[in-house]
Inverse folding.
């Protein structure tokens, strides 16, 4: 259906998924003598179904105790270095979070509104920085620059807000 670089038209994906579901309802199919039923689900429903199947069939699932890294997503494609990539970005994100926590505490002590525009931009930026590519440093360089721009701008606004709170 998509990934970081292709998932742009959610409505089209849902329409096509609806068509698949309807098609399987209109023209029932089986696999190994069991009916195939397509439907929208959630991770918890999927996990429950797997657990029910494993329990009903007396399977013992292997417990993974080794590391997931380096991760391979192709014959010669390996992902590694997540923990060491873009250390300056990771430091910048930590500093942003530190300022946010201090600013929130100062606002509380100073009985300032939690809905402070200067702090809201940093709250939003820190939310963006939790994206799986931002926090691991696996984003494209242009995206990294955009993250830095967003964080720098919001840090400036938050610093101004803290100055007002302290004055």
């Amino acid at each position: 259906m998509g990934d970081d670089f292709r998932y742009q038209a959610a409505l089209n994906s849902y329409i096509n998924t609806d068509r698949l579901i309807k098609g399987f309802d209109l023209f029932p199919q089986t696999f190994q003598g069991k009916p195939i039923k397509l439907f929208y689900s959630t991770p918890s429903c999927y996990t429950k179904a797997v657990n029910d199947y494993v329990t009903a069939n007396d399977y013992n699932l292997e417990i993974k105790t080794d590391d997931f890294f380096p991760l391979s997503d192709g014959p010669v494609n390996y992902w590694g270095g997540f923990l060491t990539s873009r250390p300056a970005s990771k430091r910048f994100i930590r500093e942003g979070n530190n300022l946010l926590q201090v600013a929130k505490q100062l606002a509380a002590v100073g009985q300032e509104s939690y809905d402070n525009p200067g702090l809201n931009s940093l709250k939003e930026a820190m939310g963006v920085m939790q994206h799986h590519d931002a926090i691991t440093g696996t984003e494209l360089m242009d995206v990294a620059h955009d993250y830095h721009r967003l964080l720098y701008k919001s840090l400036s606004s938050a610093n101004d807000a803290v100055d007002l709170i302290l004055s």
